[in-house]
Design a protein that fits this description.
7 strands, Rossmann fold
Length: 277
């Protein structure tokens, strides 16, 4: 599929999820609308209930980590959350930055933006905002944010080089990002790679882990660090539908695997942009 078609698939699927409860959203990549019904999103999600600032209404169970745990956010920081959904990570970040900081959530799905804004109104935060935009072309100024976070979203972006280039551009010199994301070790079958529903379910859009980290380094980031890594166990019924016996064996021997990672890196001080900006 073309990149624009993949984005439309993601926008439609997550627009449907925005209408649902956490329980419905976790039951599959698109909840009760029925696609991807064998992919239970709980295999990705983390428990946020002990996090300060946690708002149950904003938690749709769509993350694959808790990036704020390793993001080094400080009081007064300006934080950007990419693919902010219903606002879960934004509100956790708001608890850290306090009244003197600023938190911006970026999402391109109208339904998620409405849900996030409604949640923010209930909480009464004046320093949290939600902006519509594409991660590959953010409608945001250069050198604006101290910290960029994201949770299980960059795997949904077709052009990851553009995405990290944009993260680099909007970060202040000396700023940093921390993202939780889905990556692959080994090689997915062609059938899995070409499935639009698995793309929306955060599987087929994921790239190989070493390639992912190399994109980060080639963008110009330094001090790249993987803080957490967890294997995602997909159900055998799903795997067997997309893999022949030899490919399936690779999952059980460890030659192929799907992982969630939380990774951070710094934008060097004194540099405002790189050649791809």
């Amino acid at each position: 599929m073309e990149n624009k078609d993949l984005k439309q698939v993601v926008k439609e699927k997550y627009g449907e999820i925005a209408k649902q409860s956490k329980e419905q959203a976790e039951s599959s990549c698109c909840g009760s609308i029925g696609c991807c019904s064998t992919l239970d999103y709980k295999v990705f999600s983390e428990n946020y209930q002990d996090q300060e600032g946690y708002s149950p209404d904003a938690d749709l169970g769509l993350g694959c980590g808790i990036p704020t745990q390793f993001a080094g956010i400080r009081k007064g920081d300006s934080v950007l959350d990419l693919g902010s959904g219903a606002g879960n990570d934004c509100f956790v970040a708001r608890a850290i930055v306090g009244d003197s900081g600023q938190v911006t959530g970026l999402d391109f799905t109208d339904g998620m933006l409405v849900k996030a804004s409604d949640n923010n109104k209930k909480l009464g935060y004046s320093n949290v905002e939600f902006v519509k935009g594409d991660i590959e072309e953010m409608p945001l100024p250069d050198n604006q944010y101290d910290v960029v976070i994201s949770n299980c979203v960059l795997n949904l972006v077709p052009d990851k080089k553009k995405a990290f280039g944009e993260i680099y551009r909007v970060l202040k010199p000396g700023g940093h990002f921390c993202v939780s994301d889905v990556v692959i070790k080994g090689v997915l079958s062609e059938k899995m790679k070409k499935d639009a529903e698995l793309y929306a379910g955060c599987v087929s859009g994921a790239c190989e882990m070493n390639e992912y980290l190399k994109i980060v380094e080639n963008t110009g980031f330094v001090n790249v660090q993987v803080h957490k890594q967890k294997e995602i166990k997909l159900p055998e019924t799903l795997l067997s539908g997309y893999n022949d016996p030899k490919q399936l064996k690779a999952y059980y021997t460890g030659d192929t695997g799907i992982f969630s990672i939380t990774v951070s890196a710094d934008k060097p001080s004194g540099f405002s942009c790189v050649g791809i900006c």
